[in-house]
Each structure stands twice: as C-alpha cells, then as structure tokens.
Structures
1.
Amino acid sequence: MNKFLPYGRHVIDEDDIASVVEVLRSDWLTTGPKVGELEKAVASYCGARHGVAVSSGTAALHAAMHALGIGPGDEVIVPAITFVATANCVVYQGGTPVFADVEPDTLLIDPADVERKITGKTKAIIAVDYAGQPCNYDTLREIANKHGLNLVADACHSLGASYKRRKVGTLADLTVFSFHPVKHITTGEGGMIVTDGEELAARMRRFRNHGIATDHRQREAQRTWRYEMVDLGFNYRISDFQCALGMSQLRKLAGFVERRQEIAFRYNQKLANLDEVKRLLVSENVTHAYHLYVVRLRNNHIRTSMFKELRDRNIGVNVHYVPVYLHPFYRNCFGTGSGQCQVAEEQYSRIISLPIYPALTDEEVARVVEELRLSLTKIGGSENNNEGKSWS
C-alpha cells in the first residue's frame, strides 16, 4: 500500500537536531539567550521593531488581545472561517468575537462585511491570512483608521508572504505567527507576535511571564531579588531549545516557501482539466506562502465522498475550517447559529485541503492528483451533479 501523505508535515534535518542538542548541553534551557535571538531574527526578517516569543500561536493571539486591553463588553471582528483560536483569544479576555463573512474566491475576510459589523463596542479587527494569502490590508487599514480600531494580522498561515511588496509582519498593529509543526517553520510548539509598538511589546512580555514587571536579567542588573506582578498574566514562555530549532528553521524559510509555491504551481497545472475541482484565487498583488492548498468541489455530497475516498487511498486530506460560530461552544454561549455568514457556510461545505509541505515530491503531487481523479470517477461527480453547468 502507498504511504500515507498528510496534509501538512514538519521538515527536520541534522542541522536542526544539532542546534537543539547544543542548547541541551548549555547552561540555559529556558528564559536564556536563544529566546531573544529568535525574537530579533524574526522581527528583522519581517521588518518589525519588536518580537515577543511565546509558547504557541494561540498564546500569541491571547497576548495580543491582552496588549490591546480587550475586556468584557468589547467586541472584536474575526472571520467566520479560521481556526477556533482566532475567536477564542477574544473570549479568554472576556470579550465577544463578532463573525464577519469571507470572500467566496479567496476565503479571506470580507472588508465590506467587516464594516457592516462594526458597532460602538468594536475595539479591533483580526484579519486571518487564510491558507497563506495576505488579506486586503489597505482596505482593512482604512476601515480601522476610520473607526479608531486596532488591526491585528493572524498570520499563522503566512510567514514568508507579502502584500504589495511589503512583508507580512509590517501590515498591522500586531502580527501573530505560529510555529506549530505543520507551519512554515517550527519550534515544536511556539508562536510570536511582531509589532512596532514598544509599549505593546512590553505588555506582552509581562503577560507571558505571569504579569511580572521584570525578568531575571533585569533583577540581576539591579542586584535585587524583588519583583512585582502588575498584571494577571500566564506562563506562556518558550524554551531555549525550541528557539534554537526555530533559528535553524528560519534560515531555511525561503527555501521552504519556494518549494510550497512550486507544489502549488504543479497542482494548478494538473487540476486545470478537472471540471469538478476549482482552486482558490490568488490576488495579483500578493506573494502566497501556501500553508494550505485548498480546492473547492461542486457540492457537499462530492466533498464528503471525496474525503472518505482519498483517506481510504492514504491521501491525508483535511477540511479547513468549520465556521467557528457553528461549533457547540459558540452556539451555547453566544447564541450563534446557521445563516450568520452565508458565503462562509456555502464555501465550507465544498472545500478540501490537499497535501502540501516542502518534503512532498513531484511524484507524490502527481499521485495526489491521480487519486483525486480516480475518486471523482468512482463517486460519479459529473453524472450526479449537473456536468456541463457552470458553478463557482
């Protein structure tokens, strides 16, 4: 049987392993020099002034909401299609996520719906660079400035991407990255926020360390044992050996992104003749980082059958994502339900994510496409679903 091809996978080499081992043999396993090195390196890569490394992308989102002062009674607009952490981080602070619809051809947050959802309680917008494509940041910035809102980029999918020749990390007040193993670079688990705001960075550094105002280096320099907890924070620290892995991975980021783009190009070519499959559109003014390669099928019946068929053929397709407000927690706690974001619900019913990661070979890409074609033939997509009629 052919080997299983997951939708995403980390790539670790001997340089990565050696970098981690070096730290394991050092005097610092956590809160040491590698944390600051990774912060500076990622911030420099993006063109931002400050980086704050934390234990996960979710922790990074939570720290961003804390830094912006989100609290009870505040609303934050988020896209309907995203991982749940984008909305959960608002709830952690006692705020209310308000779900905006997405654009049908990209699944990026729809700026027009964002503006429709703004109220007197709105404090921020979180834009998600779905699948690795940057959002329409010029329009979102214009809306944010018009209404006095903060703009946050959930760029957990888009490290290495750009918008109008500006790197992701310079397009919002705060930009959040994830270093989970399926992302562009990994620290095992980990995340980072980059920003030009010095005070925002200081708030997030306190927040990741229990809300304590000074770290051990500052206390050592001051020759004091005394510290003060000034905020209610969390232990969201990241270890030095994780950051050593991140530094090693960062040196390979350009190659990782380039390979993802090559795979996407091959998919684009090979899927062009399959009428039942449509890829998401890519704007002319962006560089796509392709964390995910998402295609749309004609309807939910085909998508459901296709998922099972491809999984049976050891192709690890997935679905990204169920509209967040349809999850039981949000239905039960916020009274959300079907019909809130019609484009998101319609597109969710048809999307499926194909394998994409730097170690995926050209032969494996061809195998994915062939198995998809065979699955379509088996489930009779064209016969049962109005072959020849246009759809979008």
2.
Amino acid sequence: MMTRDEVKSSHLFNAFKAFAEQSESATGSLLKTPQTPAEHLARLARYADVFKTFYEPGKHARLATFLRRLEAIDTTTVYPFLLYAYAELVPKHTDEFDRILELIESYLMRRMICAMTTKNYNRYFIDLMRALDKKGAITAANVVEYMAKSTADSTLFPDDSAFETATFGMPLYNRLAQYKVRSILEALDAYSPDAKSEPLPLPPGLTIEHVMPQSWQTHWALSDEDKVDPVTEQQAVARRNRLVNTLGNLTLITGSLNPSLSNSNWGTKRPELLKFSKLNLTQYFHGSDAEYWNEEAIEKRTRHLYLQMGKIWPALPVVVPSDNSLIANS
C-alpha cells in the first residue's frame, strides 16, 4: 500500500528496509512516507487498527457484508486498497467508503459469476491507488472513472449483457465451488425481505438443493417431443443437465431432505422442500410460477433472480463530468 508496488513475501524485509531508508515524501501520493522511526511505528499502529477492523467490523454492516462475500471470491489482493480507503475515509466519510465497497463488490462478484480471471487483481488494485493519487481524492466517482477505462478481459467490469449471458447460459453449480454458489444464494436471500423488515442472520449449516434433482430421469421425464429421435433426445438431455445446475434451479435449505424425497416428483417434493426450508429464498415456491416445475419454470426463476442480482451487484454507473456525481447504469 505504501510503495504502490507489488512486494513478494520472500523480499518483504529488503523491501521494507529500502522503503524505510527513503527520506522524502512519495511523489504524487496522498500518503506521505514516514521519515523517522516514530513515524513508521505510528503508521504501522494506525494500519494495524484498520486491519483489525476487517476481522471485527462491529456495527459497520456494509463492511461486514463485503468481507463475508470477499471470502467466497477468494482473493486477498484487495486488502492494500481497503487499508488505504478505510484509513482515509472512515469515520468522517463512511458513506463514501461504503459506496466504494459496493463498486468493488459488484466488480468482483460479477467477474466471478462470469468466470473471468483473477490473476491480475493484485496489479489492478495497486494501479487503482495510483489513479486516485493522481486525482487527489478517494471518491466513488474517481473509482468508477478508473474502472470504466479497464477494457481488457483481465480487468473488465462486466456489463449487463455479459452478466445476463453468464447467468442464463452457464451452469453455476459444478462450475463454481459450492461455497461460492452458497454466497450468491445467501446474498439473494438477504435481498428478499421487505425493505421495511430487518434481515436476520442466516443459520449455519445451510445446504444447496437442486429443485429439479440432478438425478431427474425417473420422475422428471423428458417430453414426447424431446424423444422423437436419438439426436433430439441427446440434445434434450444435454440441455436438461445444464439447466438443472443453473441459478433458477438452486436454493438453500436449513435441513437435509431425504434423498428419496429429493428425487421424487414435484407434487411430493414441493411440500417437503417448503417444510425444510423457511428461508426468504424459498418463498418463491409458494407462488403460482412454481405450480409446475419444468425447464420453463427454471428459466423463469432464473430471470427473477437475475434481476435481483442486478440490484445487489449493479452495473458500473455513469459519471457525469459536470459535477462528478454518479448515475445508475440501467
């Protein structure tokens, strides 16, 4: 964070020694380089307190949510930037810090869902700090401006077109680790409550349930039209196997369904699913859209959840140059 450069763990001592021997402030940086032992210790103590906050966010709900989802994204390269932004903005400008967290979370979650690489994140967030140095201010608008300039696949902020294509066209389950899929479903469950009600923490031990089971052949037969010839049937089976692992066919349950019930027909499984899962995410299955559960129903629920994800992790907003404010990109 202080050097605005990558430091290998094996070179940490020499890198810090070289940094400590500097006697002038870092050119163009919002953070001045400590010049005396006392200043170095004071700076280390300051950022130690900030780092501790990442493990004990207390009443800072937005930070706690971000850090919980960051575990699913499985990257730590954002921490130098978080140290930087938190120390400069909290507590006087906490709202601005929270807006920046929302941008970073949307960027990381969208890229995870779109199966984009994480290999350049370390360089990405270092360059973000440098860009903010040049701007002279840590603001959400300046973060957006930096993100909008990243057009390479390794750094791109996925737009709604790419996000929608990934959500509908790519299986989520088996492509992503289960804890990553669970974090997406948990975020959707947290979004579901009425805005007037206070969301409750989810119970531990939640499991992912396929509404139409992965072993669907016995009780969820293909239609006669899908079996008119071997080629058509093979294509239908492939389509079905993809759809059962997409977002619209996944939910969370608080208890484990008996395997025989889990694989049974919808008329038997539906009441059992509602019995074992009291989560907001499962309330959808009370409605008329879940009266029958087939491929069309899966795609309809995928659309329903995709629209919610777009609100949880919105696309990159547009910066209005005249006042440097943000407008949601619909």
